C-alpha cells in the first residue's frame, strides 16, 4: 500500500478523500497544520504529500521532503505559485495538480460575488433579519449593456465570459494567448490590457500567479480604469497590489471590489479568527469599506469540485506506485 500525507486539511477534505476512487489503496495521514520547512519532518516515510494553496514548499522544505523519502508532490488545486519549481526539479520531484476540477464552480462564484455586491444582497439580508425593510442605500445597476473585461481566458475565464454574455453584457478579453475562434463564436472581442482597463465597467481576473502577473493591478493600472469600475478576483490574491487598491478605494475611484482571495491570506483564510483582532492592518481596512465584499477562498467549494479534486489526486498517487502516466497536467 502506498502512503500519502495531506496537509492543511479540513473535515470536508477527509470526507471526500476517504470516499474517493481507490482510496482503500492509500494509507492516508491527515494533518490540519500546513506543510512548510518547520513541519516537513512529518512526511518521513511517506511516498507522497498532498498540499493546498497556503502550504509553503520553498527550497528548504523541498530538500527536507527529499531527505524524508517523498517521491510525489500532489497539489489539490490548480495554482502552484507556492512551490519552488526550480528546487523541485533539482531534487527530482514529480509535481501533479488538478487544473480543471470544476471551472464552473469558480466562474459561478465570481459572478455571484459581483451580483451580491452590486445589488447589496448581503446588506439587505442582514437588514431584513433585523426587521429593517428600508431600501435606502441598496441601489445597484443593471448588468445588461455594461462592458465586462475578462483578464485571462482559460477554462474559468471562458465560462465567466459566457455567463456575462447571458446577462447581455458586452464582453471584452485580454490574454497572452488569445483564442480568436472561441471569441468570435461567443461574440467577444480581444483587446490589449490597457484597452480593457480603459473600457470596462467590470473587470474580472482569471489568471495564474507568476512573476509576470504579480501585482498586475497596481497604482499605475488603477489609474487607467474607468471611474466607478467594479473589480472581481477569484484567482490569486497577489494579482492585486493591496496598498494601491486601498489608495484607489480611498480616492473613490473604484465602485466596488469583490474578492475571494487576498495576497497575504496565509495564516488567515480557512481559520476562525473571530475571537481576536487581526494583525493585518491592510486586511482590516479592506474589510471596513462598505463597497468591498470578501469571501475566504471558497470559490472552489462545491460538491462537484471537491469530488473531482479527490478523484484526480487519488488516482495520480495510485499511478505513482503502478509507474503509470499521471492524468491531466503535470507541472514537473
Automatic annotation (TrEMBL):
Signal peptide: none annotated. Residues 5-325 form the D-isomer specific 2-hydroxyacid dehydrogenase catalytic domain. Coiled coil: none annotated. Gene3D superfamilies: NAD(P)-binding Rossmann-like Domain. InterPro entries: D-isomer_2_OHA_DH_cat_dom (IPR006139), D-isomer_DH_CS (IPR029753), D-isomer_DH_CS1 (IPR029752), D-isomer_DH_NAD-bd (IPR006140), D-LDH-like (IPR058205), NAD(P)-bd_dom_sf (IPR036291). Belongs to the D-isomer specific 2-hydroxyacid dehydrogenase family. This is D-lactate dehydrogenase. It comes from Nitrosomonas ureae.
Amino acid at each position: 500500500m502506498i502512503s500519502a500525507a495531506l496537509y492543511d486539511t479540513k473535515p470536508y477534505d477527509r470526507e471526500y478523500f476517504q470516499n474517493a476512487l481507490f482510496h482503500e489503496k492509500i494509507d492516508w495521514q491527515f494533518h490540519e497544520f500546513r506543510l512548510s520547512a518547520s513541519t516537513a519532518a512529518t512526511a518521513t516515510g511517506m511516498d507522497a504529500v498532498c498540499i493546498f494553496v497556503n502550504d509553503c514548499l520553498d527550497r528548504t522544505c523541498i530538500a527536507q521532503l527529499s531527505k524524508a523519502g517523498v517521491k510525489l508532490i500532489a497539489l489539490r488545486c490548480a495554482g502552484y505559485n507556492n512551490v519552488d519549481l526550480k528546487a523541485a526539479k533539482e531534487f527530482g520531484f514529480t509535481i501533479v495538480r488538478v487544473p480543471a476540477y470544476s471551472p464552473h464552480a469558480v466562474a459561478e462564484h465570481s459572478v455571484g460575488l459581483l451580483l451580491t455586491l452590486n445589488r447589496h444582497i448581503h446588506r439587505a439580508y442582514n437588514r431584513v433579519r433585523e426587521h429593517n425593510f428600508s431600501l435606502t442605500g441598496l441601489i445597484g445597476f443593471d448588468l445588461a449593456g455594461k462592458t465586462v473585461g475578462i483578464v485571462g481566458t482559460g477554462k474559468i475565464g471562458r465560462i465567466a465570459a459566457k455567463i456575462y454574455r447571458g446577462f447581455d453584457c458586452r464582453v471584452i478579453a485580454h490574454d497572452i494567448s488569445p483564442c480568436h475562434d472561441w471569441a468570435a463564436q461567443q461574440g467577444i472581442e480581444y483587446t490589449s490590457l490597457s484597452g480593457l482597463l480603459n473600457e470596462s465597467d467590470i473587470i474580472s481576473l482569471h489568471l495564474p500567479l507568476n512573476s509576470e502577473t504579480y501585482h498586475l493591478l497596481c497604482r499605475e493600472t488603477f489609474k487607467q480604469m474607468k471611474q466607478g469600475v467594479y473589480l472581481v478576483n477569484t484567482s490569486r490574491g497577489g494579482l492585486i497590489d493591496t496598498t494601491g487598491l486601498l489608495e484607489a478605494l480611498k480616492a473613490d475611484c473604484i465602485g466596488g471590489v469583490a474578492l475571494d482571495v487576498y495576497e497575504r491570506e496565509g495564516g488567515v483564510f480557512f481559520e476562525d479568527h473571530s475571537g481576536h483582532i487581526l494583525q493585518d492592518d491592510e486586511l482590516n481596512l479592506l474589510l471596513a469599506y462598505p463597497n468591498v465584499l470578501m469571501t475566504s477562498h471558497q470559490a472552489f467549494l462545491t460538491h462537484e469540485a471537491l469530488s473531482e479534486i479527490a478523484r484526480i489526486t487519488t488516482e495520480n498517487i495510485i499511478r505513482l506506485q503502478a509507474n503509470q502516466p499521471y492524468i491531466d497536467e503535470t507541472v514537473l
